[in-house]
Amino acid sequence: MAKAMMTLRRAAALGARHILTASSRVVPLRHMSADAGAAMEKIRAAGLLRTQGLIAGQWVDAYDGKTIEVQNPATGDVLANVSCMGSRETSDAIASANSTFYSWSKLTANERSKALRKWYDLIIAHKEELALLMTLEQGKPLKEALGEVNYGASFLEYFAEEAKRIYGDIIPPTLSDRRLLVLKQPVGVVGAITPWNFPLAMITRKVGPALACGCTVVVKPSEFTPLTALAAADLALQAGIPAGALNVVMGNAPEIGDALLQSTQVRTITFTGSTAVGKKLMAGSANTVKKVSLELGGNAPCIVFDDADIDVAVKGSLAAKFRNSGQTCVCANRILVQEGIYEKFASAFIKAVQSLHVGNGLEESTSQGPLINEAAVQKVEKFINDATSKVFLITISMHFPPNPEGMY
Question: Which fold has domain 56-296?
């Protein structure tokens, strides 16, 4: 094993020797705008295009009337203008969640379970509209978006059942005249801060267990992908989740975050995102001694040894690196390939990458959607420039759409 590790060649996504560059531009985009328009109409017809925040069961504008644009990263088109909320709206959402906590937590586990199961059923019934909305605002291919809807809904299905199984414990006492019992109770209001790369699943994965055990929630979705969160919240109301049990505020991230951290009524912070922000949230939670649940950025290698099956290794590496256009916390940051298999693997991997089709996620042929925004594009360009300044490169081509406004 030690000898094998000594012969590994290090390549960041094969970046030490292979960098992907755009050499040909195909896929006309004119009809894609029409597709996007038709998708938006389908979403509107289903009643799932919400642009206001959700506080105490009411859809409300930002108190100062400010809005932010939600753009389609594939085209740069503005999909909607949503309320840009801040500390005041967040404080009201927290107060609503705290007030509702006392009634929601008193319901039986079976009653909460039924509401969560209904929410699951409604998400599955509207999975096509939710997937379209996700592709429009986040960019991932429609097949991936449909997969996320099913994945996200599965958390609600699971925790709808687990709601009925929040058991206590009986502990053997140390004294004969004592009985030791453990009763599990909800902590209170949960502040959930979610990322843009999985705009539905990261919400259901946090909100599902919180509601199941009797907590209430204030969700702050990413300002880049708030529409999916708002649509999911609308379905939660339809499912019978009571007003105030689930609140959604979006917009000014620092203000919203500070309001959640400073509130003594918020008892838990759950966050998925960067390590830097996670550290700030952990530090900010100390003053009010909140529970903290963090899922932070990864730094994952993909390792291929000489005895690997080439086809399996290429397929696995491709999925590890290119899922969601490389925008997940578990995407491979580098690929380490053992000397004896390197050339065969590199050749097969390059061929597989060349078959990927970059474009608008609404197109059936697209396997790689755009990056989320211009900052993400610049970050990747910085990595490429850094690599090209330091190492020998063999460039290969991929197909990109002829769209200067998209985040490609």
Answer: Aldehyde Dehydrogenase; Chain A, domain 1 (3.40.605)
